[in-house]
Amino acid sequence: MIEHLADAAPEPDPSDLALTFGLLGGLCLLFVAAIVVVVVLVLKRRREERQ
């Protein structure tokens, strides 16, 4: 029974894996970019308040 299930499970295509990792990488980059933008905006506001 277990061997039958193992045969039925399709092997993931390399292109599917690349697409998945590409999407994950893109989301991570967007997340990091958003954090950087927020930090820069906060620092600019603090500088303006000092002056």
Ends: how far apart? 74 Å
Helical amount? over 70%
Total domain count: 1
Overall SS class:
mainly alpha
Shape call: rod-shaped
Order of helices and strands: HH
Number of strands: 0
Number of helices: 2
Keywords: Membrane, Transmembrane, Transmembrane helix
Transmembrane segments: 20-43
Please name the defining characteristics of this protein.
2 helices, mainly alpha, single chain, 0% strand
Explain how this protein is built:
With 51 residues, the chain is mainly alpha-helical. The protein has helices spanning 2-8, 14-50. It starts with a helix and ends with a helix. The chain has one domain. The radius of gyration is 22 Å and the shape is rod-shaped. The model has no long low-confidence stretch (mean pLDDT 85).
SSE topology sketch:
Blueprint: H1 2-8, H2 14-50
Provide a compact summary of the structure:
Keywords: Membrane, Transmembrane, Transmembrane helix. This protein is mainly alpha-helical and 51 residues long.
